[in-house]
Amino acid sequence: MSLACLAAGDIFIPVEIEEGDIYAGIFKVLEKIRPDWPSERIKFKLFTDGITNKLVACHLSKDIGESDDIVLVRIYGNKTDLLIDRTAEIRNITTLNVLGLAPKMYGVFKNGLVYEYFPGVTLNTETVIDSKIATMVAQQMAKMHKVELGKEIAKEPMIWDKIEQFLCLIPESFTKEEKQIRFANSFGSVTRLRIEFERLKSQLIKTESPLVFAHNDLLLGNVIYNESKGTVSFIDYEYAAYNYQAYDIANHFNEYVGLSIDDIDYSRYPDKEFQMFWIRTYLSEYCGEKPSEEEVQKVYKEVQRLSLASHYMWGIWSLIQYELSDIDFDFGRYAEIRLNRYFDQKDKIIREFK
Known about the structure:
Strand content: 5-15%
Order of helices and strands: EHEEEHEEEHHHHEEEEHHHH
Structural class: alpha+beta
Low-confidence stretches: 1-6
Radius of gyration: 20 Å
């Protein structure tokens, strides 16, 4: 990782945590971040919400719930730097922390970050539709969307360049023959996917959805609900950037169906009534006043259209992971699920929400 990505006050730890022995590396990181912690008292808890990074909570008490100082160590997945701008990620976390919208960052090491732990639980397919929690999520997203980055950051939608970047990373031929055969049977070729992208872009680039500073990856595991405080917080700003307002909302709705491949169920996708309630709540916070039904309906329309871009982007992303990742997750199947949903929905959505 380049030192250029560090913000003022950030600590750089010249350590690379090895995949086969993560705790030895974490001890070295903690020596710099928490030098007063006795190594024999340090406890670890491995979180498994993500499918590309490893996330480890470090604390001193026997029970993590009793600890008042908990440090999160996030170890980047194999070759994820090809997909993610780490300099921008660190800038985003630092900017949002000042505004109370992101955890405090304690330091950066060669292949990861160390930052503040937000107590609470991640959302699941049941809690995300709870009206009280959904209200807080909508309001929190609206607050984030009002953030303005410095003038040196171009205010352009990230989605088109990001998909283009992802398409360039799909191999012309997968290293394992069985993967290449599966790819060809399911998707044809990279050329076919590129042609489809150009068609999609020509349809959606006309969107009237405003450009905002968006999270762009608000899956259920990236929302922390603290019941005792009555708050929600967002984590993992790897893909945060300027993007269409409706994309961020649509991407979040697409995650209601579940992440586990065996558990994805599109009957959980939120219906129009719920989406309208959520968007109405969001706009009340974003605009500072109650929106008209016409304004809510307009955002709802753009959300349906931009949901296609969400499916397409994460389908392409999954094909890259299919080649590069060493995590035990069927990225080929996940690509099939997301891109099949895209192809199943695109004509209906484009026709209905012109």
